Amino acid sequence: MQSTLAIIKPEILKKGLSGKIISIIEEHGFRISAMKMVHLTKDQAGRFYHVHRGKFFFEELTQYMSSGPIIVMVLSGDNVIERWRSLMGATDPSKAKEGTIRKLYGTDIQRNAVHGSDAPETAAFEISFFFSKMEIENGS
Ligand code: CMP
Asked: Catalytic residue numbers?
C-alpha cells in the first residue's frame, strides 16, 4: 500500500469546482485517507515547494499557492503515486491528455488545478507537512 499527497489548488476553490475534482477522485476508486482545507502563507508555500527554490517560477508559484485556500488530501492504494499523476495529466494543461483533470480544469502551467507527489520520498515529506499521523485513516 502506498500513499500520496494531492492538492486542489486555489483557482479551483475560487471557481467553486473543488467538488467536481473530489468526485473524479472518488469515481476513479481512489481512497481518500485524510482531507482538509488550509490557507498557506507565502513562507509556508516556499517550505512546501523547497525543491523549486531558485527556479525562475518559484516566486510566482509561492505567491499563487498562498493566494487562497487549498484542499489537501492523502490518497492511498496500490501504485497510487503513479495512478494519481496519470489522472492529473501533464504539468502544463495545454499538453495534458484528454480526460485528465488538468486538461479539464487547468488554466495554465501555474494554475494547473491539482498537485501530486512525484515519488515515495516526496510523498512522505509532503504528507507529513500537512498531516499528523492521528489525522490519517489507518485502514483498520
Ligand atoms: P506542481 O505539480 O504543483 O509542482 C510545481 C509547480 O510549479 C507546478 O505544478 C506548476 O504549477 C508550477 N510551475 C510554474 N511554472 C512552471 C514551469 N515552467 N515548470 C514546471 N512547473 C511550473
From this structure: 115
